[in-house]
Design goal:
The complex is a heterodimer. Chain A folds into two domains: about 80 residues, Beta-grasp domain (Ubiquitin-like (UB roll), Roll), CATH 3.10.20.30; about 80 residues, Orthogonal Bundle (DNA polymerase, domain 1), CATH 1.10.150. Chain A is about 35% helix and about 15% strand. Chain A has a five-stranded mixed beta sheet with strand order 2-1-5-3-4, sandwiched between helices. In chain A, strand 1 and strand 2 form a beta hairpin. In chain A, helix 2 packs across helix 5. The longest helix of chain A is centred in the last third of the chain and has 23 residues. The N and C termini of chain A lie far apart (about 60 Å). By secondary structure, chain B is an alpha+beta fold. Chain B has three domains: about 45 residues, 2-Layer Sandwich (Uridine Diphospho-n-acetylenolpyruvylglucosamine Reductase, domain 2); about 110 residues, Uridine Diphospho-n-acetylenolpyruvylglucosamine Reductase, domain 3; about 110 residues, CO dehydrogenase flavoprotein, C-terminal domain (Enolase-like, domain 1). In chain B, strands 4-5-10-6-7 form a five-stranded antiparallel beta sheet. Chain B has a four-stranded antiparallel beta sheet with strand order 11-12-13-14. In chain B, strands 1-3-2 form a three-stranded parallel beta sheet, covered by helices on one side. In chain B, helix 10 packs antiparallel against helix 11. Classes of the chains: A alpha+beta, B alpha+beta. Chains A and B meet through strand 4, helix 3 and helix 4 of A and helix 2 and helix 6 of B.
Chain lengths: ~170, ~290
Amino acid sequence: MATARKVSLTVNGVPYEALVEPRMLLVDFLRHELRLPGTHVGCEHGVCGACTILMDGRAVRSCLMLAVQADGANLMTVEGLSPRGQLDPLQEAFIEGHGLQCGFCTPGFLMSLCELLQHNPNPSDEEIKETLGGNLCRCTGYQQIMDSVHIAIAKRQGAGAASAAR
Amino acid sequence: MKPPPFEYFDPRTIREAVSLLREHEGEAKILAGGQSLLPLLNMRLARPEVLVDLNKVDGLDYIREADGWLAIGAMTRQRDVERSELVKSRNPLLHAAILSIGHPQIRNRGTVGGTLAHADPAADVVATAVALGAEVQAVGPEGERTIKAEDFFVTALTTALEPTEILREARFPALPRGSGWSFMDVARRHGDFALAGAAVTLTLGAGGNCSGASIVVFGVTPTPLKASEAEQLLIGEKPGEKLFEEAGRKASEAIDEPMADIHASAEFRQHLAKVLTRRALAEAAARARGMA
Protein backbone atom coordinates (compact mmCIF):
# COMPACT_ATOMS: atom_id res chain seq x y z
CA MET A 1 0.00 0.00 0.00
CA ALA A 2 1.42 3.37 -1.01
CA THR A 3 2.16 6.05 1.55
CA ALA A 4 -0.76 8.33 2.27
CA ARG A 5 -0.27 11.93 1.15
CA LYS A 6 -1.50 15.15 2.64
CA VAL A 7 -3.72 17.29 0.46
CA SER A 8 -4.81 20.84 1.19
CA LEU A 9 -7.49 22.32 -0.99
CA THR A 10 -10.48 24.61 -1.04
CA VAL A 11 -13.90 23.32 -2.04
CA ASN A 12 -16.80 25.74 -2.45
CA GLY A 13 -14.82 28.32 -0.51
CA VAL A 14 -14.13 26.01 2.44
CA PRO A 15 -10.55 24.89 3.16
CA TYR A 16 -9.93 21.19 3.76
CA GLU A 17 -6.94 19.09 4.69
CA ALA A 18 -6.81 15.33 4.47
CA LEU A 19 -4.57 12.30 4.18
CA VAL A 20 -5.28 10.27 1.05
CA GLU A 21 -3.97 7.22 -0.70
CA PRO A 22 -2.53 8.34 -4.06
CA ARG A 23 -4.87 6.07 -6.03
CA MET A 24 -8.00 7.63 -4.56
CA LEU A 25 -9.95 9.36 -7.33
CA LEU A 26 -10.91 12.97 -6.78
CA VAL A 27 -14.60 12.15 -7.26
CA ASP A 28 -14.44 9.53 -4.50
CA PHE A 29 -12.53 11.92 -2.26
CA LEU A 30 -15.27 14.55 -2.67
CA ARG A 31 -18.08 12.11 -2.12
CA HIS A 32 -16.70 9.95 0.70
CA GLU A 33 -13.98 11.94 2.48
CA LEU A 34 -15.55 15.38 2.19
CA ARG A 35 -19.12 14.08 2.25
CA LEU A 36 -20.10 16.12 -0.79
CA PRO A 37 -22.12 13.52 -2.70
CA GLY A 38 -23.58 15.94 -5.24
CA THR A 39 -20.88 14.98 -7.73
CA HIS A 40 -21.82 11.63 -9.27
CA VAL A 41 -19.90 8.64 -10.52
CA GLY A 42 -21.16 7.42 -13.89
CA CYS A 43 -18.61 5.68 -16.02
CA GLU A 44 -15.19 6.10 -14.40
CA HIS A 45 -13.56 6.42 -17.78
CA GLY A 46 -14.26 9.97 -18.79
CA VAL A 47 -17.15 9.74 -21.21
CA CYS A 48 -20.34 10.54 -19.31
CA GLY A 49 -19.56 13.82 -17.52
CA ALA A 50 -21.58 13.02 -14.39
CA CYS A 51 -18.45 13.70 -12.32
CA THR A 52 -17.82 17.19 -13.76
CA ILE A 53 -16.61 19.80 -11.26
CA LEU A 54 -14.77 23.10 -11.57
CA MET A 55 -11.08 23.16 -10.75
CA ASP A 56 -9.61 26.65 -10.66
CA GLY A 57 -12.56 27.75 -12.79
CA ARG A 58 -12.24 25.01 -15.43
CA ALA A 59 -14.70 22.16 -15.90
CA VAL A 60 -12.89 18.85 -15.40
CA ARG A 61 -13.82 15.19 -15.09
CA SER A 62 -13.13 14.38 -11.45
CA CYS A 63 -13.11 10.64 -12.16
CA LEU A 64 -9.99 11.23 -14.25
CA MET A 65 -8.12 13.01 -11.51
CA LEU A 66 -6.43 11.71 -8.41
CA ALA A 67 -7.31 13.47 -5.17
CA VAL A 68 -3.62 14.20 -4.64
CA GLN A 69 -3.61 16.21 -7.85
CA ALA A 70 -6.08 18.68 -6.34
CA ASP A 71 -3.56 19.74 -3.71
CA GLY A 72 -3.51 23.54 -3.64
CA ALA A 73 -6.51 23.84 -5.94
CA ASN A 74 -9.75 25.75 -5.69
CA LEU A 75 -12.66 23.47 -6.49
CA MET A 76 -16.34 24.04 -6.97
CA THR A 77 -18.93 21.28 -6.87
CA VAL A 78 -22.68 21.48 -7.40
CA GLU A 79 -23.11 22.07 -3.68
CA GLY A 80 -21.30 25.35 -4.24
CA LEU A 81 -24.20 26.66 -6.32
CA SER A 82 -26.50 26.77 -3.31
CA PRO A 83 -24.22 27.40 -0.33
CA ARG A 84 -27.00 28.67 1.91
CA GLY A 85 -29.75 26.44 0.60
CA GLN A 86 -31.16 28.89 -1.94
CA LEU A 87 -31.06 27.62 -5.48
CA ASP A 88 -28.85 29.33 -8.03
CA PRO A 89 -30.74 30.80 -11.04
CA LEU A 90 -29.04 28.12 -13.14
CA GLN A 91 -30.65 25.43 -10.99
CA GLU A 92 -34.03 27.21 -11.05
CA ALA A 93 -33.79 27.35 -14.82
CA PHE A 94 -33.37 23.57 -14.95
CA ILE A 95 -36.51 23.12 -12.86
CA GLU A 96 -38.54 25.55 -14.99
CA GLY A 97 -37.25 24.08 -18.23
CA HIS A 98 -37.70 20.45 -17.13
CA GLY A 99 -33.99 19.93 -17.71
CA LEU A 100 -33.87 16.94 -15.41
CA GLN A 101 -35.83 13.79 -14.62
CA CYS A 102 -33.78 11.39 -12.54
CA GLY A 103 -31.22 14.13 -11.89
CA PHE A 104 -28.19 11.87 -12.05
CA CYS A 105 -26.46 13.76 -14.86
CA THR A 106 -27.61 17.17 -13.68
CA PRO A 107 -24.74 18.23 -11.41
CA GLY A 108 -22.32 17.52 -14.24
CA PHE A 109 -24.38 19.58 -16.69
CA LEU A 110 -24.60 22.46 -14.23
CA MET A 111 -20.86 22.58 -13.65
CA SER A 112 -20.09 22.43 -17.37
CA LEU A 113 -22.52 25.29 -17.86
CA CYS A 114 -20.93 27.31 -15.08
CA GLU A 115 -17.67 27.44 -16.97
CA LEU A 116 -19.39 28.26 -20.25
CA LEU A 117 -21.52 31.08 -18.86
CA GLN A 118 -18.61 32.55 -16.92
CA HIS A 119 -16.64 32.95 -20.14
CA ASN A 120 -19.51 33.53 -22.51
CA PRO A 121 -22.73 34.95 -21.02
CA ASN A 122 -24.57 34.77 -24.34
CA PRO A 123 -23.50 31.60 -26.13
CA SER A 124 -24.98 30.41 -29.41
CA ASP A 125 -26.75 27.06 -29.56
CA GLU A 126 -23.66 25.63 -31.27
CA GLU A 127 -21.47 26.82 -28.42
CA ILE A 128 -23.88 25.40 -25.85
CA LYS A 129 -23.91 22.03 -27.61
CA GLU A 130 -20.13 22.06 -27.92
CA THR A 131 -19.86 22.55 -24.15
CA LEU A 132 -22.50 20.00 -23.22
CA GLY A 133 -21.41 17.36 -25.74
CA GLY A 134 -19.29 15.84 -23.00
CA ASN A 135 -22.25 15.33 -20.66
CA LEU A 136 -24.62 12.42 -21.28
CA CYS A 137 -28.28 12.30 -20.25
CA ARG A 138 -30.44 9.20 -20.54
CA CYS A 139 -33.74 10.76 -19.51
CA THR A 140 -34.50 14.07 -21.14
CA GLY A 141 -33.53 13.69 -24.77
CA TYR A 142 -31.52 16.90 -24.33
CA GLN A 143 -34.08 19.33 -25.78
CA GLN A 144 -35.34 20.33 -22.32
CA ILE A 145 -31.75 20.81 -21.25
CA MET A 146 -31.28 23.26 -24.12
CA ASP A 147 -34.52 25.00 -23.06
CA SER A 148 -33.23 25.22 -19.48
CA VAL A 149 -29.98 26.75 -20.67
CA HIS A 150 -31.91 29.39 -22.62
CA ILE A 151 -33.95 30.17 -19.52
CA ALA A 152 -30.76 30.42 -17.46
CA ILE A 153 -29.18 32.83 -19.95
CA ALA A 154 -32.30 35.00 -19.88
CA LYS A 155 -32.35 34.96 -16.08
CA ARG A 156 -28.71 36.04 -15.92
CA GLN A 157 -29.28 38.81 -18.44
CA GLY A 158 -32.34 39.94 -16.50
CA ALA A 159 -30.34 39.99 -13.29
CA GLY A 160 -27.54 41.86 -15.03
CA ALA A 161 -29.91 44.50 -16.32
CA ALA A 162 -31.52 44.86 -12.91
CA SER A 163 -28.19 45.41 -11.16
CA ALA A 164 -26.97 47.78 -13.88
CA ALA A 165 -30.11 49.87 -13.43
CA ARG A 166 -29.43 50.32 -9.72
CA MET B 1 -13.17 0.11 -11.37
CA LYS B 2 -10.69 1.89 -9.20
CA PRO B 3 -6.98 2.24 -9.88
CA PRO B 4 -4.66 -0.46 -8.54
CA PRO B 5 -2.14 0.69 -5.91
CA PHE B 6 0.94 2.56 -7.09
CA GLU B 7 3.74 4.66 -5.66
CA TYR B 8 3.19 8.34 -6.52
CA PHE B 9 5.70 11.12 -7.11
CA ASP B 10 5.10 14.74 -8.10
CA PRO B 11 8.54 16.18 -8.92
CA ARG B 12 9.11 19.91 -9.27
CA THR B 13 11.70 19.76 -12.06
CA ILE B 14 12.05 17.75 -15.23
CA ARG B 15 15.47 16.57 -14.07
CA GLU B 16 13.86 15.08 -10.97
CA ALA B 17 11.22 13.45 -13.15
CA VAL B 18 13.86 11.88 -15.39
CA SER B 19 15.73 10.61 -12.30
CA LEU B 20 12.59 8.97 -11.08
CA LEU B 21 12.05 7.26 -14.43
CA ARG B 22 15.60 6.00 -14.32
CA GLU B 23 15.32 4.83 -10.74
CA HIS B 24 12.13 2.92 -11.49
CA GLU B 25 12.99 1.97 -15.06
CA GLY B 26 10.29 -0.03 -16.76
CA GLU B 27 7.87 0.28 -13.88
CA ALA B 28 7.02 3.95 -14.02
CA LYS B 29 4.42 5.78 -16.10
CA ILE B 30 4.23 9.51 -16.66
CA LEU B 31 0.98 11.23 -15.66
CA ALA B 32 0.26 14.41 -17.64
CA GLY B 33 -3.36 15.38 -18.37
CA GLY B 34 -4.62 11.98 -17.30
CA GLN B 35 -7.39 11.88 -19.90
CA SER B 36 -5.95 8.72 -21.46
CA LEU B 37 -4.04 7.23 -18.52
CA LEU B 38 -6.72 7.50 -15.83
CA PRO B 39 -9.31 5.52 -17.82
CA LEU B 40 -6.66 2.81 -18.28
CA LEU B 41 -5.88 2.86 -14.55
CA ASN B 42 -9.54 2.87 -13.59
CA MET B 43 -10.19 -0.16 -15.77
CA ARG B 44 -6.89 -1.69 -14.61
CA LEU B 45 -5.71 -2.09 -18.18
CA ALA B 46 -2.53 -0.42 -17.00
CA ARG B 47 -0.92 -1.35 -13.70
CA PRO B 48 2.25 0.74 -13.34
CA GLU B 49 4.10 0.34 -10.05
CA VAL B 50 5.01 4.01 -10.07
CA LEU B 51 3.30 7.15 -11.32
CA VAL B 52 5.40 10.24 -12.03
CA ASP B 53 3.05 13.22 -12.13
CA LEU B 54 4.37 16.12 -14.24
CA ASN B 55 1.70 18.60 -13.20
CA LYS B 56 3.90 20.31 -10.63
CA VAL B 57 6.92 20.66 -12.92
CA ASP B 58 7.48 24.31 -13.79
CA GLY B 59 8.29 25.63 -17.21
CA LEU B 60 6.54 23.10 -19.44
CA ASP B 61 3.47 25.22 -20.12
CA TYR B 62 4.07 27.66 -22.96
CA ILE B 63 3.27 28.52 -26.57
CA ARG B 64 6.07 30.40 -28.31
CA GLU B 65 6.91 31.35 -31.83
CA ALA B 66 10.46 30.98 -33.03
CA ASP B 67 11.62 31.18 -36.66
CA GLY B 68 8.10 30.56 -37.89
CA TRP B 69 7.76 27.40 -35.79
CA LEU B 70 5.37 27.11 -32.87
CA ALA B 71 7.11 25.65 -29.83
CA ILE B 72 4.63 24.23 -27.36
CA GLY B 73 5.62 22.96 -23.93
CA ALA B 74 4.57 19.39 -23.19
CA MET B 75 2.29 20.29 -20.30
CA THR B 76 0.41 22.99 -22.21
CA ARG B 77 -3.29 22.24 -21.87
CA GLN B 78 -5.08 21.60 -25.14
CA ARG B 79 -7.61 24.23 -24.07
CA ASP B 80 -4.92 26.89 -23.95
CA VAL B 81 -3.86 25.99 -27.48
CA GLU B 82 -7.53 26.22 -28.50
CA ARG B 83 -7.77 29.72 -27.02
CA SER B 84 -4.42 30.91 -28.37
CA GLU B 85 -4.67 33.67 -30.96
CA LEU B 86 -1.09 32.90 -31.90
CA VAL B 87 -1.93 29.32 -32.81
CA LYS B 88 -5.17 30.28 -34.54
CA SER B 89 -3.36 32.73 -36.80
CA ARG B 90 -0.05 30.95 -37.35
CA ASN B 91 -1.21 27.36 -37.63
CA PRO B 92 -4.93 26.93 -38.31
CA LEU B 93 -4.43 23.24 -39.09
CA LEU B 94 -3.08 22.59 -35.60
CA HIS B 95 -5.86 24.73 -34.18
CA ALA B 96 -8.52 22.73 -36.02
CA ALA B 97 -6.97 19.48 -34.81
CA ILE B 98 -7.01 20.64 -31.18
CA LEU B 99 -10.67 21.67 -31.47
CA SER B 100 -11.43 18.19 -32.67
CA ILE B 101 -10.25 16.60 -29.44
CA GLY B 102 -13.15 15.22 -27.41
CA HIS B 103 -14.92 17.81 -25.35
CA PRO B 104 -13.97 21.02 -23.54
CA GLN B 105 -13.70 19.19 -20.21
CA ILE B 106 -11.11 16.84 -21.72
CA ARG B 107 -9.19 19.69 -23.31
CA ASN B 108 -9.10 21.52 -19.96
CA ARG B 109 -6.80 18.82 -18.60
CA GLY B 110 -5.39 17.06 -21.64
CA THR B 111 -1.95 18.20 -22.73
CA VAL B 112 -0.16 18.52 -26.06
CA GLY B 113 2.77 16.40 -24.85
CA GLY B 114 0.47 13.79 -23.41
CA THR B 115 -1.50 13.19 -26.57
CA LEU B 116 1.71 12.92 -28.59
CA ALA B 117 3.36 10.53 -26.12
CA HIS B 118 0.22 8.40 -25.89
CA ALA B 119 0.17 7.96 -29.69
CA ASP B 120 -3.38 6.80 -30.17
CA PRO B 121 -3.93 5.85 -33.84
CA ALA B 122 -6.93 8.18 -34.04
CA ALA B 123 -5.38 11.13 -32.20
CA ASP B 124 -5.88 14.44 -33.95
CA VAL B 125 -2.67 16.19 -32.88
CA VAL B 126 -0.63 13.07 -33.64
CA ALA B 127 -1.87 13.08 -37.24
CA THR B 128 -1.28 16.82 -37.54
CA ALA B 129 2.27 16.47 -36.24
CA VAL B 130 3.00 14.03 -39.08
CA ALA B 131 1.19 16.15 -41.67
CA LEU B 132 3.18 19.26 -40.74
CA GLY B 133 6.53 17.56 -40.23
CA ALA B 134 6.66 18.49 -36.56
CA GLU B 135 9.39 17.48 -34.15
CA VAL B 136 9.53 16.71 -30.45
CA GLN B 137 12.20 17.31 -27.88
CA ALA B 138 12.91 14.38 -25.60
CA VAL B 139 14.95 14.62 -22.41
CA GLY B 140 16.50 11.60 -20.72
CA PRO B 141 19.35 10.70 -18.37
CA GLU B 142 21.85 11.05 -21.21
CA GLY B 143 20.64 14.44 -22.31
CA GLU B 144 18.26 15.83 -24.91
CA ARG B 145 17.44 14.81 -28.44
CA THR B 146 15.14 15.94 -31.22
CA ILE B 147 12.89 13.34 -32.80
CA LYS B 148 11.06 14.02 -36.05
CA ALA B 149 7.36 13.18 -36.11
CA GLU B 150 7.90 10.70 -38.94
CA ASP B 151 10.24 8.74 -36.64
CA PHE B 152 8.39 9.35 -33.41
CA PHE B 153 5.26 7.26 -33.85
CA VAL B 154 6.32 3.62 -33.97
CA THR B 155 3.02 1.77 -33.73
CA ALA B 156 -0.28 2.06 -31.88
CA LEU B 157 0.32 3.56 -28.43
CA THR B 158 4.09 3.26 -28.90
CA THR B 159 6.58 6.04 -29.54
CA ALA B 160 10.33 6.25 -29.97
CA LEU B 161 10.70 7.53 -26.41
CA GLU B 162 12.92 5.38 -24.21
CA PRO B 163 11.41 4.31 -20.84
CA THR B 164 13.62 6.92 -19.15
CA GLU B 165 12.78 9.77 -21.53
CA ILE B 166 10.21 12.53 -21.21
CA LEU B 167 8.74 14.54 -24.07
CA ARG B 168 9.45 18.13 -23.07
CA GLU B 169 8.36 20.19 -26.09
CA ALA B 170 6.69 19.82 -29.47
CA ARG B 171 7.53 22.10 -32.37
CA PHE B 172 5.19 22.64 -35.30
CA PRO B 173 6.39 24.37 -38.46
CA ALA B 174 4.25 27.01 -40.12
CA LEU B 175 2.22 26.09 -43.18
CA PRO B 176 4.18 26.74 -46.36
CA ARG B 177 3.38 30.07 -48.04
CA GLY B 178 0.42 29.86 -50.39
CA SER B 179 -0.97 26.78 -48.66
CA GLY B 180 -4.46 25.78 -47.85
CA TRP B 181 -5.24 23.20 -45.19
CA SER B 182 -8.00 20.90 -44.10
CA PHE B 183 -8.70 18.74 -41.12
CA MET B 184 -11.68 16.44 -41.16
CA ASP B 185 -12.79 13.20 -39.61
CA VAL B 186 -15.77 10.93 -39.30
CA ALA B 187 -17.11 9.79 -35.94
CA ARG B 188 -20.48 8.56 -34.79
CA ARG B 189 -20.83 11.40 -32.32
CA HIS B 190 -19.14 14.75 -32.06
CA GLY B 191 -16.15 14.32 -29.84
CA ASP B 192 -15.75 10.58 -30.32
CA PHE B 193 -12.47 9.17 -31.52
CA ALA B 194 -12.30 9.37 -35.30
CA LEU B 195 -13.16 6.23 -37.26
CA ALA B 196 -10.96 7.79 -39.90
CA GLY B 197 -9.64 11.25 -40.62
CA ALA B 198 -7.49 13.30 -42.94
CA ALA B 199 -5.07 16.15 -42.21
CA VAL B 200 -3.99 17.86 -45.38
CA THR B 201 -1.98 20.81 -46.61
CA LEU B 202 -1.93 21.88 -50.24
CA THR B 203 0.39 24.48 -51.68
CA LEU B 204 -0.44 26.21 -54.96
CA GLY B 205 2.33 27.70 -57.04
CA ALA B 206 2.25 31.00 -58.89
CA GLY B 207 0.47 29.47 -61.90
CA GLY B 208 -2.24 27.93 -59.73
CA ASN B 209 -0.90 24.39 -60.00
CA CYS B 210 -0.12 22.22 -56.99
CA SER B 211 3.46 22.73 -55.92
CA GLY B 212 3.31 20.82 -52.66
CA ALA B 213 1.02 18.59 -50.67
CA SER B 214 0.96 16.73 -47.40
CA ILE B 215 -1.71 14.11 -46.98
CA VAL B 216 -2.07 12.21 -43.73
CA VAL B 217 -4.79 9.68 -43.15
CA PHE B 218 -5.36 8.67 -39.54
CA GLY B 219 -7.47 6.30 -37.50
CA VAL B 220 -7.08 3.67 -40.18
CA THR B 221 -3.61 2.30 -39.44
CA PRO B 222 -1.71 1.96 -36.13
CA THR B 223 0.20 5.17 -36.86
CA PRO B 224 -0.82 8.06 -39.12
CA LEU B 225 -0.27 7.22 -42.74
CA LYS B 226 1.51 9.72 -44.95
CA ALA B 227 0.08 9.10 -48.41
CA SER B 228 3.23 9.95 -50.37
CA GLU B 229 2.07 8.42 -53.65
CA ALA B 230 -1.13 10.40 -53.52
CA GLU B 231 0.92 13.52 -52.77
CA GLN B 232 3.18 12.91 -55.77
CA LEU B 233 0.15 12.59 -58.02
CA LEU B 234 -0.77 16.19 -57.30
CA ILE B 235 2.53 17.91 -57.96
CA GLY B 236 2.47 20.09 -61.08
CA GLU B 237 -1.20 19.39 -61.69
CA LYS B 238 -4.11 21.78 -61.72
CA PRO B 239 -6.30 21.28 -58.67
CA GLY B 240 -9.67 19.78 -59.49
CA GLU B 241 -12.33 17.27 -58.53
CA LYS B 242 -11.04 14.46 -60.76
CA LEU B 243 -7.48 14.88 -59.52
CA PHE B 244 -8.55 14.79 -55.89
CA GLU B 245 -10.71 11.74 -56.54
CA GLU B 246 -7.67 9.95 -57.93
CA ALA B 247 -5.54 11.09 -55.00
CA GLY B 248 -8.19 9.75 -52.62
CA ARG B 249 -8.11 6.40 -54.37
CA LYS B 250 -4.31 6.31 -54.25
CA ALA B 251 -4.28 7.17 -50.53
CA SER B 252 -6.81 4.46 -49.81
CA GLU B 253 -4.93 1.85 -51.85
CA ALA B 254 -1.78 2.58 -49.83
CA ILE B 255 -3.46 1.07 -46.79
CA ASP B 256 -2.52 -2.58 -46.56
CA GLU B 257 -4.52 -3.66 -43.54
CA PRO B 258 -6.99 -1.12 -42.27
CA MET B 259 -7.84 -1.56 -38.60
CA ALA B 260 -11.11 -3.28 -37.83
CA ASP B 261 -13.00 -3.15 -34.55
CA ILE B 262 -16.55 -2.83 -33.21
CA HIS B 263 -16.72 0.77 -34.39
CA ALA B 264 -15.82 0.27 -38.04
CA SER B 265 -14.85 -2.53 -40.39
CA ALA B 266 -11.63 -2.52 -42.37
CA GLU B 267 -13.58 -1.92 -45.58
CA PHE B 268 -15.40 1.06 -44.12
CA ARG B 269 -12.17 2.63 -42.88
CA GLN B 270 -10.56 2.08 -46.26
CA HIS B 271 -13.54 3.73 -47.93
CA LEU B 272 -13.49 6.66 -45.48
CA ALA B 273 -9.79 7.19 -46.19
CA LYS B 274 -10.58 7.63 -49.87
CA VAL B 275 -13.53 9.96 -49.37
CA LEU B 276 -11.95 12.10 -46.65
CA THR B 277 -8.74 12.56 -48.64
CA ARG B 278 -10.73 13.78 -51.62
CA ARG B 279 -12.88 16.14 -49.54
CA ALA B 280 -9.95 17.45 -47.53
CA LEU B 281 -7.96 18.21 -50.68
CA ALA B 282 -10.93 20.10 -52.11
CA GLU B 283 -11.26 22.12 -48.92
CA ALA B 284 -7.54 22.79 -48.76
CA ALA B 285 -7.52 23.94 -52.40
CA ALA B 286 -10.42 26.32 -51.73
CA ARG B 287 -8.55 27.76 -48.76
CA ALA B 288 -5.37 28.09 -50.80
CA ARG B 289 -7.27 30.06 -53.41
CA GLY B 290 -8.67 32.18 -50.59
CA MET B 291 -12.19 31.25 -51.42
CA ALA B 292 -13.06 29.17 -48.34
